[in-house]
Amino acid sequence: MYTPPPFKPDRAASLAFAEARGFGLACAWDGAKPIASPLPFYLSYAADGTPRAAFHLARHNPLIKLAATSSWLLAVTGADTYVSADWYVSPDQVPTWLYQAVHLAGPVRPLSDDELAVQIDTLSAKFENRLLPKKPWTSAKMTAARLEAMKKAIVGLEMTVEEVEGSFKLNQHKSETDYVAVAGALASQTDAGAQQIAHLMREARPDAFATEPNQRERSEP
Fold it and tell me: What CA–CA distance (Å, rounded) separates 6 from 170?
């Protein structure tokens, strides 16, 4: 992933973003064309600190044949939004797009039946916890026959993450005046992505917004 220095997060921030998002696009090359599938995942870590991304696919997914044969890419994206050049204070600006994205890459191996059983419950727990205080769903709620049939229809996979690349493009390279102006314009949009990017911009440079109330007071008659 091409990432200009101002937009490059550190490795820890990239992994934290990927884990929090928990959903990405798995991509591999079959020798003639790229193959991709969107999927949920979770991260774990080996004893030496190496990240591992765990997920599963339908047994007939063509990606399955590429496990253990090549390196895969897991592309994880977050909020994104268009920025109009009219929103800048400075002249001679151009439109752009702000976003967050992380790419994880590495070899993938199939999981054993026992590993798949653990993965199913770990993956569901990751997202069920977001629904608290709802009592979490677990595979124990299924009949043994139904659970076994479901497990036979999927293949568990684990990526050993050898490369971590991130790009958090939030206009970090712009002047404080332009930065605040764009964040304000985005915050006023009805689009959820625009509002989320505006929030992230405030978090990234809180000092730029510290004088906002005083500025409003001075502008009042």
Answer: 9
Distance CA 141, CA 154 (A): 19
**DSSP letter string, 18-77:** HHHH-EEEEEEE-SSSEEEEEEE-EEEE-TT--EEEEEEEETT-GGGGGTTTSEEEEEEE
171 Cβ contact list (under 8 Å, min separation 6): 83, 96, 98, 178, 179, 182, 201
Tokens matching residue 54: 């765990």
pTM of the model: 0.90
Cα–Cα distance for residue pair 72/35, rounded to 1 Å:
10
Phi/psi for 155 (5° steps) reads -130, 125
As given in the structure block, the two tokens for residue 53 are 């991304």
In order along its 221 residues, the chain shows pLDDT tens digits of 999 999 999 999 999 999 999 999 999 999 999 999 999 999 999 999 999 999 999 999 999 999 988 899 999 999 999 999 999 999 999 999 999 999 999 999 999 999 999 999 999 999 999 999 999 999 999 999 999 999 999 999 999 999 999 999 999 999 999 999 999 999 999 999 999 999 999 999 999 998 765 444 433 44
- The runs of H, that is alpha helices, within 41-189 are 113-128, 144-152, 176-187
Residue 108 CA from chain centroid, whole number: 19
